[in-house]
Structure formats: C-alpha cells, structure tokens
Amino acid sequence: MPSRPASSEAPSSSFLTDVSRFLGAFRWAFMPLGLLALVAVGVHAAADTLDDRLLTAVDRLDSAFDGFVGQYPATASLVDWVSLETRTRLARALTLAWELAADLLLALPALGYREVAAPAPTEAWRAVTALSSEPSAPSSWKALLQRCLRRPTPMRWVRPLATAGVVLAGACTVARLVQGTVYLSWRPLFGDTVADLSARGLAVAALCGVSVSLGWRAVLRNLQHADAACAAVGPRRAWTRGLLGCVLVAPLGLAAVWDAAPVLSFLR
Fold first, then answer.
1. pLDDT digits over 125-156, tens only?
2. Which distant-in-sequence residues (6+ apart) come within 8 Å of 6 by Cβ?
3. 3-state class (DSSP) for residue 220
4. Helix, strand or coil for residue 232?
5. 35 FRET partner, CA 20 to 30 A, in 6, 29, 256, 265?
C-alpha cells in the first residue's frame, strides 16, 4: 500500500504562541511605559522617606527665624507667623516638587527606549579577518562604560547610579505588594508558615523578575541619555551639563538604596 505523501503545510502554532506574538508586536509601546512606571514608583518610594527629613529641616529654619525676629520688640509678633500645620504643608509641597522634578529627569528618558535587532551572525573567517579598529555600537554597555571611564562627567555617573537606586526601590515596592497580597490571602487557606514562605518566595521572584526585565533597561536608557547630552557639548561644558539635575536626583538615589530598598527583609 503506497504511503500517504507528507503534508506541505507547516504545523499550526499553539494558542499561547499566537498570543505571545501578538503581544510582542506592541513591545515598542509597553516597554517604555513599564520603564516609566518603575522609575516613578521608585522615585515615590524614595521621596516618602525624605518627607520627615524635610519637615525637620523646615522646623530648624523656622526655629532660626524665630530666634532672630524674637530679639527685637518690633518683630517679636512674627514668631508665631509659621505654624506647625504650615510647616507640614511646606514640607509636603517641597517633597512633591522634588519628586516631580526627579520624575522629569529620570523617568521621561525611559520613553525614548527603543529595541534594535541583534546583529546577524557572521562566519568565523569574517570575525577573524575583521579590522580590530572597527568601533563597537555607540549605545552598547561596553562603549558607554568606556566613555564614562575615559571622559567622566557628573551627568554620566550620577544619573545612571540614581536610576539604579530608584529602580531597586521600585522593584522592592512591587515585591512588598506581592508578599503582602499572597500572605494575607493564603494564610486562612494554608496556615501561617506555608503562607509566609510562599509569600517570601514569590516576593523574591517578583523582585528578580522586575529587576531583570525592566530595571537594567531603565539604567541603560538613562546612561544613553546622559552620554548623548554630554557628547552634544564640548568637553568643558560637559562637566556642568545637567549639574543641577544631578544635585536633585543624587539624594533621592541614596535614600532609595538606604531606606526604600529593603532587599534583605525578604530573606529574613
């Protein structure tokens, strides 16, 4: 009996594969928005830790002002000019302005994130005989880090490091949300021990997943933006390019790492 000829049609892909390909077509849109959201969440978490510190600074300034105007009878009535409620509102307004400024400096560059296709593989003999002086990709990690070391500027170093701090704080915020949700919902079903271990494990998985999928891309995008801004001006002006922005985001980056990124809390 003659065998049936094989079908020339390609096997149909699965439903999950089709869905994955469909969602991948919109990667150009949701990847920049994801980076923007992660940086904004991290900046907000860092700003929350600075609210009390700003209130303390406002209180000290008010105390110095009261001590100065209280020395003279003509201005002694100004001692009670700024109340505690006014100082609290002032501290909150300063925190909000600081947070919005940091969002403009760190989160908006993420909207310019674009992915390019990987270079086509070459034959082994072409790789061996290629010119050694051929420049690498201008936006690759290696090229960017080389320019940071050879031509260091505050913008090239402070912006990416501050971004790394805030994206870590944002990833920790997402992990804490996962941990709390899983623990509170699973505790009545499986008990305290199982719910706690499961919540910690899923929180660590969320922390690693957000950092791997979005975190390093946000840092790379800010590094690219800072490098392009410094390269657009001369070597002398590059030192002062974006200096005010560096002064604004540096404390937020430190606060994000020091107070808003409790990475070890998920393991204890």
1. 444 343 333 344 556 778 888 888 888 899 99
2. none
3. helix
4. coil
5. 265
